[in-house]
């Protein structure tokens, strides 16, 4: 029994080391080639997936990794989009626009977090609900900057003449480059020291405090970072959709984003991409099946996916990739298990666990 | 002055709509430890089933009673065949499952009954009662009275009865509950069933006012959530008082605080939550508690 | 060709990319040439023409959204069953409708457009301002017609700004203006309270109304409030307005439930002004009757379409043809609860009108044909209204008539009272 | 007269086998300890008895094979489990916790007098009767957990690591109360305990587990006398 487990582990180790060496290179090659080979509509779909993958990634930072329920991530996407639209329509330098589209949402996120994180988990949830709910009428009131309910159009990122590319190809490259950079940075962050600290804060704030970590500071940090990434996704949103209105940041979309994160797989980089793909592709899929049954089909797809894969789509990819990072289940550890391997094996089937107790 | 008092009365009757859903949220949270986003959707489905019975000639009271019973069964079935799979996993996943359920139910209602507005008759007359220059419809009074009765029943259920205690125990710690001989699975089904039945009452109360559509309660859900947090998740009286407070203060702020106005009055409950939670993290009436949304 | 072809300068350094360019070359051709030869635009052949619709079929605007598809589908469904539509180039084509749900989400509307633009000849009939605005610029860049859309946003009827667009329904300003004029013409003094939706829809109505009553000595606007489309109640607004002493309420509200409860609330407060309702929320059966409209001295609305529920049109031939087709071809078995069903039926007729004068199967020629319709009385149109597309700044239906509720349906009126 | 008999019990979490043939016998009114290293299967043995893990073998309680029943049915037979980590109901008050423990009982008067007995057994709880369990100290929570368990008037008490995380004096107070409980009520017990010295203040005999297997069984006196036991579990 134990021997057999060793063999599988060794195999997947070998697989993984191969993937680790060849994987990134392969990925880069694929990403470079993809925009060139696919027709326009596919490129546009991939670009949209990129936009929402980044948005889901931001949500994952605050919720998946730091464990703070956020129901308002779409607000930061909307804010980033508005900043971008305003900057572009006033002919600001696009680099300046991008920096502002990152910094302004990050700053707003910081202010919100400074207040909310002091209150604890529940208040963060409610304050974040308020963001899109209040954000929509606020955007209408600030019509001088936002164009009111008619929204703002801003077309930018057309392919420069020297590139010889189509607009959709050029835009997709931009999305892949910016989005890829954000993913890479975030990945390094959550796999490094910060990621471990966030994990401790998520699991038990008291434990974190007792080892000298300020949960408050890290919650604020995670929230700010999520807002910044949200701002980036807003910039990409404008690049790809070229239009934004108060409707962009409605509460319903925020909830869908949350669903996409969980479906993709919480606290997972791959899951963020899958979540973005889910967010974009499922409406297209339901349109293909029967456009008049959108809600019914979407609800059914969501339930079926989670019923089959409660850990999200990323749990499909997990055995291949970074197999054994055990998911944060609320498992009181029925027995003091001899090794991590046993534990991750047991987590899924533990018959009785304490669902809600003392965190 | 008459306008001022009228605004307060209007706020109370709007608050009663929020309170109806908020009570169902409290019930399911007390009984399962979850915030159920599908609560409003289940109430709408119940209202549609009553509406369908009405259109087949069943008298109103009978149709509503039948929908309450059907909803109890539906809630229990949802728990048994859907939620049970997620009850011991990540609570975030379970919440998203309720979001999926909401989407599905909305879709099913739209498919079966179309997205058109349907008129739903009220148990109470729409005639106004005028008192000291303030008028209020009998429908609002009736709705409020029913909600107060339901609130008191719920309060009594949780505070005083063995069933209420057992439901709460199962939500807090299913394993220890089982060690004490509580039939955990059956109690979870009963909890969902009761919440759904309560939702059916809420649906029948507010459908005449909001007119029946698949998304009828989507907007009210946010207010109900705010009321639940503000009032304290464990206190039925607390959430009803909070819902009324939200309804009243929202109106007053819209009219008398020019900076807020009608467009930003939706910020009022959240400002209220912020202020209250700074002082009392457990909400107005709640006991200190550990909550996961 | 839908897109501007640009010469490919070799920039790409990587070998892999060069290789890929070859693929790209392959995949990029093929699209674009229609079956009828080099000149034909996408989505049209000798026997068929395909139209795309992106509209909300789920979410809070799904009710009217479903109607925008049902009317067009019903219209062309009936035409197809009768053999098809005779085009100006001498060919008879059947009309296919490809409708996608955007859930009133601009981003999804853009996605729908992207997926349809190479398959359909033209986009039409979709409901919503933000959802139509989301891909307006893309449609201009791609030279895809985005015509007879259901938004009163004037931008879509501005030929300069929107060369490939045309709105169908009267711009909001026109509707507000029509009622304002009627009020001014009454000569009697009126105090008006305004309650409008806090968006371009409400603002457009109010703007039109104000421009009509500006300078009129007999009209005084005593109070002006807004509400949000996400509100569950407007009781507070009605209470506040009732204290203003107004005898007329100008109510630019697009949500049926809120209009019903506003009517009920005013009665409860015993405030009985003359009431103005917009064209899309004045349905006799779904709004005025449940709201108890008979209690008010007058419920006024503007319209250009016959209301099928109104007894005056129960025997109308247009109406009967329409209702039968809606059931048979429109996938809409119930009595239409929103006027958008009628409007979209008229969109079908207007499109046919343009098709019959098209001489080439191209999008360019279609736009030319569409922009040269004058005084076309589409089926279901009320006397005094017509489709005219030659006037810049105006949508296909530029005029409305004011009507008054008569207890069952509406009568056209020339004056207040 | 044997109250509980485990014969060759196996258990696994998914593919991982944790118990690989555990045998144990608890006489009526007796108390048996389970000793062993981390991961030896002590907690799982208790979970096997209270049916919260899938098991093989035979588990006979009062002459009946109870293996494979639902946990609440097992509890109804008179087996009360005090889980590791205490498992109190954090959002319920102390009194409510005790009332939940008495869920299966119908005798109102008996319940009230047993609550009094619990408060007498654990006087610390007296002042905290209206507090939420989550507001109690670790020691108080442990006392409440035992109190909750005995409210069901069990015939067998399963006690899992009752001293875990407690200060030595508090742990001793808890075990003093448990010993008193045993003497006064005669409830049979299975005691899992890291601190074997504490366990021996209550139990008559003990079983030593190693990697999911019973390797040694003996009376308290016998085991105390064995060098390897002393080295492994008694701190020298």
Number of helices of chain B: 11
SSE order of chain B in H/E notation?
Answer: HHHHEEHHHHHHH
The helix content of chain B is over 70%
CATH topology of the largest domain in chain C: Rossmann fold
Portion of residues in beta strands of chain C equals 15-25%
Q: In DSSP terms, counting alpha (H) and pi (I) runs of 4 or more, how many helices of chain C?
A: 13
Record the strand order, biggest sheet of chain C: 8-7-9-10-11-12-13
The major β-sheet of chain C equals: 7 strands, mixed
Amount of beta strand of chain B: under 5%
Residue windows where pLDDT falls under 50 for at least 5 positions of chain B: 289-293
List the helices and strands and how they pair.
The complex is a heterotetramer of chains A (359), B (293), C (417) and D (236).
Chain A: H1 2-37, H2 40-65, H3 73-89, H4 94-116, H5 121-141, H6 143-146, E1 152-153, H7 167-191, H8 193-203, H9 205-210, H10 215-241, E2 243-244, H11 251-264, H12 269-289, H13 294-308, H14 314-317, H15 340-347
Antiparallel strand pairs in A: 1-2
Helix pairs in contact in A: 1-7, 2-7, 2-10, 2-11, 2-12, 3-4, 3-10, 4-10, 7-10, 11-12, 12-13
Chain B: H1 2-32, H2 39-55, H3 60-81, H4 91-113, E1 128-131, E2 134-137, H5 138-160, H6 162-172, H7 174-179, H8 184-210, H9 218-231, H10 236-256, H11 267-279
Antiparallel strand pairs in B: 1-2
Helix pairs in contact in B: 1-5, 1-6, 1-8, 1-9, 1-10, 2-3, 2-4, 2-8, 3-8, 5-6, 6-8, 9-10, 9-11, 10-11
Chain C: H1 15-28, E1 48-55, H2 62-81, E2 85-86, E3 92-101, H3 106-116, E4 122-124, H4 129-133, H5 136-142, E5 146-149, E6 165-167, H6 172-185, E7 190-197, H7 200-213, E8 219-227, H8 235-242, E9 248-252, H9 256-268, E10 274-277, H10 284-288, E11 299-303, H11 317-328, H12 340-357, H13 363-370, E12 401-405, E13 410-412
Parallel strand pairs in C: 1-3, 1-4, 4-5, 5-6, 7-8, 7-9, 9-10, 10-11
Antiparallel strand pairs in C: 2-3, 11-12, 12-13
Helix pairs in contact in C: 2-11, 2-12, 6-7, 8-9, 12-13
Descriptive account of the structure:
The complex is a heterotetramer of chains A (about 350), B (about 290), C (about 425) and D (about 240). Chain A is built from 15 helices and two strands. Chain A has helices at about 1-35, 40-65, 75-90, 95-115, 120-140, 145, 165-190, 195-205, 205-210, 215-240, 250-265, 270-290, 295-310, 315, 340-345; strands at about 150-155, 245. Chain A has a two-stranded antiparallel sheet with strand order 1-2. Helices cover about 35% and strands about 15% of the residues of chain C. The N and C termini of chain C lie far apart (about 55 Å). With about 425 residues, chain C is an alpha/beta fold. Chain C has two domains: about 15-170 and about 315-400, Rossmann fold; about 175-305, 3-Layer(aba) Sandwich (Rossmann fold). The longest helix of chain D is centred in the C-terminal third of the chain and has 18 residues, at about 170-185. The radius of gyration of chain D is 17 Å and the shape is globular. In chain D, strand 1 and strand 2 form a beta hairpin. By secondary structure, chain D is an alpha/beta fold. Chain D has one domain (about 1-90, about 155-235): Rossmann fold, CATH 3.40.50. Chains A and B meet through helix 5, helix 11 and helix 13 of A and helix 4, helix 7, helix 9 and helix 11 of B.
């Amino acid at each position: 029994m134990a021997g057999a487990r060793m063999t599988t582990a060794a195999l997947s180790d070998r697989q993984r080391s191969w993937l680790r060496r060849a994987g990134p290179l392969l990925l880069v090659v694929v990403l470079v080639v993809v925009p060139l080979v696919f027709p326009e509509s596919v490129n546009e779909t991939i670009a949209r997936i990129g936009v929402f993958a980044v948005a889901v990634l931001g949500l994952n930072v605050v919720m998946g990794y730091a464990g703070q329920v956020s129901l308002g991530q779409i607000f930061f996407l909307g804010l980033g989009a508005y900043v971008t639209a305003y900057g572009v329509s006033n002919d600001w330098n696009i680099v300046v626009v991008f920096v502002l589209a990152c910094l302004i949402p990050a700053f707003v996120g910081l202010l919100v977090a400074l207040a909310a994180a002091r209150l604890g988990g529940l208040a963060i949830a409610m304050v974040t609900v308020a963001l899109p709910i209040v954000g929509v009428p606020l955007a209408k009131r600030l019509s001088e900057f936002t164009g009111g309910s008619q929204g703002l159009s801003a077309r930018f990122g057309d392919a420069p003449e020297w590139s010889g590319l189509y607009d959709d190809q050029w835009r997709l490259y931009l999305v892949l480059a910016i989005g890829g950079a954000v993913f890479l940075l975030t990945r390094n962050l959550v796999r490094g020291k910060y990621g471990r600290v966030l994990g401790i804060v998520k699991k038990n704030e008291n434990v974190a405090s007792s080892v000298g970590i300020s949960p408050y500071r890290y919650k604020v940090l995670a929230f700010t970072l999520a807002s910044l990434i949200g701002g980036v996704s807003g910039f990409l949103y404008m690049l790809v959709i070229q239009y934004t209105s108060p409707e962009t940041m409605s509460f319903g979309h925020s909830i869908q984003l949350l669903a996409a994160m969980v479906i993709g797989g919480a606290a997972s980089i791959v899951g963020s991409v899958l979540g973005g793909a889910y967010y974009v592709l499922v409406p297209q899929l339901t349109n293909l099946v029967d456009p008049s049954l959108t809600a019914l089909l979407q609800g059914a797809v969501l339930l079926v996916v989670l019923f089959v894969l409660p850990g999200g789509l990323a749990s499909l990819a997990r055995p291949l990739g970074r197999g054994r990072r055990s998911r944060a289940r609320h498992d009181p550890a029925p027995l003091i298990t001899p090794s991590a391997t046993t534990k991750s094996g047991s987590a899924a089937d533990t018959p009785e666990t304490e669902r809600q107790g003392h965190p | 002055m008459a306008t001022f008092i009228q605004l307060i009365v209007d706020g109370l009757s709007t608050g009663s709509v929020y309170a109806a859903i908020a009570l169902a949220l409290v019930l399911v949270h007390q009984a399962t430890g979850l915030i159920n986003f599908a609560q409003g959707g289940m109430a709408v489905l119940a209202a549609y089933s009553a509406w369908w019975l009405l259109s087949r000639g069943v008298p109103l009271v009978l149709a509503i009673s039948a929908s309450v019973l059907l909803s109890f069964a539906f809630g229990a079935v949802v728990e048994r065949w859907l939620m049970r799979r997620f009850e011991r996993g990540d609570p975030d996943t379970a919440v998203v499952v309720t979001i999926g359920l909401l989407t599905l139910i909305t879709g099913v209602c739209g498919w079966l009954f179309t997205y058109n507005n349907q008129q739903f008759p009220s148990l109470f007359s729409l005639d106004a009662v005028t008192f000291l220059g303030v008028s209020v419809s009998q429908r609002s009074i009736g709705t409020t009275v029913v909600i107060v009765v339901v609130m008191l029943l719920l309060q009594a259920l949780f505070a005083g009865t063995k069933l209420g205690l057992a439901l709460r125990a199962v939500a807090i710690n299913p394993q220890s509950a089982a060690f004490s001989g509580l039939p955990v699975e059956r109690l979870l089904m009963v909890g969902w069933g009761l919440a759904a039945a309560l939702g059916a009452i809420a649906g029948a109360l507010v459908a005449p006012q909001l007119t029946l559509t698949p998304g009828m309660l989507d907007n009210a859900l946010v207010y109900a959530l705010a009321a639940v947090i503000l009032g304290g998740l464990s206190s039925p009286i607390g959430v009803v008082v909070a819902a009324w407070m939200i309804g009243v203060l929202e109106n007053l702020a819209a009219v008398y605080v020019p900076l807020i106005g009608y467009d930003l009055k939706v910020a009022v409950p959240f400002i209220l939550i912020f202020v209250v939670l700074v002082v009392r993290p457990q909400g107005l009436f709640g006991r200190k508690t550990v909550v996961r949304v | 060709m839908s897109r501007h072809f640009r010469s490919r300068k070799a920039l790409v350094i990587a070998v892999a990319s060069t290789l890929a360019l070859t693929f790209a070359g392959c995949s990029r051709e093929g699209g674009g040439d229609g079956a009828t030869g080099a000149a034909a635009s996408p989505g049209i052949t000798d026997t068929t023409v395909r139209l795309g619709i992106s509209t909300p079929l789920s979410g809070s605007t799904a009710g009217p959204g479903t109607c925008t598809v049902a009317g067009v589908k019903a219209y062309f469904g009936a035409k197809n069953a009768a053999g098809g539509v005779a085009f100006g180039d001498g060919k008879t084509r059947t009309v296919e409708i490809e409708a996608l749900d955007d859930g009133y989400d601009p981003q999804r509307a853009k996605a729908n457009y992207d997926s349809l633009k190479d398959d359909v000849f033209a986009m039409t009939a979709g409901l919503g301002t933000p959802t139509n605005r989301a891909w307006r610029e893309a449609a201009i860049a791609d030279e895809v017609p985005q015509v007879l859309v259901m938004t009163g946003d004037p931008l879509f009827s501005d030929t300069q700004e929107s060369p490939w667009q045309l709105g169908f329904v009267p711009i909001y300003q026109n509707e507000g203006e029509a009622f304002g004029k009627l009020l001014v013409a009454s000569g009697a003094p009126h105090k008006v309270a305004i309650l409008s939706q806090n968006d371009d829809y409400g603002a457009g109505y109010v703007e039109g109304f104000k421009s009509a009553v500006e300078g009129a000595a007999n009209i005084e606007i005593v109070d002006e409030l807004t509400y949000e489309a996400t509100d569950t109640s407007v009781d507070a607004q009605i209470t506040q307005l009732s204290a203003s002493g107004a005898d007329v309420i100008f109510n630019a509200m697009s949500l049926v439930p809120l209009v019903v409860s506003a009517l009920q609330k005013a009665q409860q407060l015993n405030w009985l002004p003359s009431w103005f309702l917009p064209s899309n929320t004045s349905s006799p059966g779904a709004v005025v009757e449940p709201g108890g409209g008979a209690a008010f001295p007058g419920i006024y609305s503007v319209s250009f379409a016959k209301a099928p529920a109104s007894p005056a049109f129960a025997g109308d031939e247009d109406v009967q043809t329409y209702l039968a087709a809606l059931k048979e071809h429109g996938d809409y078995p119930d009595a239409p609860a929103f006027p958008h069903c009628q409007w979209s039926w008229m969109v079908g007729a207007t499109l046919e009108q343009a098709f019959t004068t098209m001489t080439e199967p191209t999008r360019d020629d279609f736009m030319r044909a569409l922009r040269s319709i004058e005084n076309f009385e589409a089926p279901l149109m009320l006397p005094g209204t017509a489709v005219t597309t030659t006037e810049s700044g105006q949508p296909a239906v530029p005029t409305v008539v004011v009507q008054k509720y008569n207890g069952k349906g509406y009568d056209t009126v020339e004056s207040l009272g | 007269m044997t109250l509980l008999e485990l014969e060759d019990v196996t258990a696994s979490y998914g593919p991982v086998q944790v118990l690989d043939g555990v045998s144990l016998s608890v006489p009526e009114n007796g108390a048996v300890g389970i000793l062993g290293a981390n991961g030896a299967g002590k907690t799982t043995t208790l979970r096997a008895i209270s049916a919260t893990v899938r098991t093989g073998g035979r588990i006979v309680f009062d002459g009946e094979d109870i293996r494979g029943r639902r946990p609440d049915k097992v509890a109804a037979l008179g087996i009360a489990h005090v889980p590791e980590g205490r498992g109190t109901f954090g959002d319920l008050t102390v009194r409510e916790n005790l009332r939940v423990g008495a869920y299966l009982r119908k005798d109102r008067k008996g319940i009230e007098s047993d609550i009094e007995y619990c408060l007498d057994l654990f006087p610390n709880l007296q002042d905290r009767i209206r507090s939420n369990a989550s507001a109690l100290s670790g020691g108080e929570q442990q006392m409440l957990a035992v109190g909750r368990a005995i409210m069901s008037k069990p015939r067998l008490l399963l006690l899992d690591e009752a001293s875990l995380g407690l200060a030595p004096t508090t742990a001793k107070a808890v075990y003093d109360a448990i010993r008193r409980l045993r003497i006064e009520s005669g409830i049979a017990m299975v005691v899992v305990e890291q601190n074997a010295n504490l366990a021996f203040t209550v139990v008559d005999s003990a079983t030593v587990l190693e990697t999911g297997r019973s390797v040694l069984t003996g009376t308290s006196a016998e085991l105390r006398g064995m060098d390897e036991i002393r080295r492994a579990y008694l701190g020298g």
